[in-house]
Specification:
83 residues; elongated; 3 helices; mainly alpha
């Protein structure tokens, strides 16, 4: 049937999005994608417990911590202000 709605939960899609944001956040834009991965992972985990949601949460936290540590390191070495 065209246009029929399946019984799939959006929790799985959010878990996948959380995992993707967490992985990409480890490489680039961790300060933005890390918290997004954590939020999506928590919402997905609340709807349907999944390993992907847990992995997205963990990767999001790691990406956020690395991004903050990198910002602190760069500001301490004068790299942010061109010093």
């Amino acid at each position: 049937m065209a246009g029929s709605v399946t019984g799939r939960s959006t929790g799985n899609g959010m878990a996948v999005a959380s995992l993707v944001c967490g992985i990409v956040g480890l490489l680039v834009y961790g300060i933005v994608l890390g918290p997004i991965a954590v939020i999506l992972g928590l919402v997905a985990h609340g709807k349907q417990a999944s390993g992907m949601a847990k992995a997205g949460i963990v990767l999001g936290v790691i990406a956020t911590v690395f991004a903050i540590a990198g910002i602190i390191w760069m500001s301490g070495n004068g790299l942010l202000m061109g010093g």
